[in-house]
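To: structure subgroup
Subject: Chain for Friday's discussion

All,

I'm putting the inputs and outputs inline so they're searchable in the archive.
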Amino acid sequence: MSRKKIVAGNWKMNQNLFEGKQLIQDILSCSTEPGANVQVIIAPPFTQLALAASQLKDRSGFFLAAQNCHQEKSGAYTGEIAAGMLKSLDVSYVIIGHSERRQYFNESNQLLAQKTDAVLAEGMQVIFCVGEPLEIRDQEQQNDYVKTQITEGLFHLSKDAFQHVIIAYEPIWAIGTGRTATTEQAQDMHAFIRSVVAGHYDAATADQLSILYGGSCNPANAEALFACPDVDGGLIGGASLKAKDFCSIIAAR
């Protein structure tokens, strides 16, 4: 079975309700229907999810994601959103462990393992983010760092449960630092991630895993990145806020 090719747009904390509605309309207008093995995922803020779900309904190849969730099913957690709440909005994917969540909200690998379990228990799929900061890359310790993130965050899962996980690699050192990750560096890390998964589960499981690149992917570099044998698509940040750019990246897939 061939791997799914995925372009996911993470809007982060951008777009009010009306701006988001227009952006999705523009994306749907400029994007042709994805191919049979291609998925387009849109991850707006929580406030946009219900409306986005209605806009994407019955649009083949388009899916809705949330940017985060809480690890508990319910309770006295003011301001938090449970996975079951997201499921009731027709959310298909949840982004877990984005570098900004790890950095600004001190989310540990152990907490992210709990969040992963919460998402999978509701029948949704996980986009699990990994990636190293600048000091780790400069010390050439990126492989060990990313392996630990995967081991502690995901390898408690059974092989069957792991089938519902996508991994997104974010080279944090190449985002907003003036340094750029080359296609070779992206391919090397994606191949390493696949080898780690193969070592824990098996080669077939690793071969079916979709691994997305999340390091400032844009219309100018998308085609070259997506041509790498172990890069199965992108987790797109800023470029997903511009319909024309996002549609260009979808076409590159």
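Points worth raising on Friday:
The chain has a mean pLDDT of 95.
The chain has one domain: 5-252.

D.
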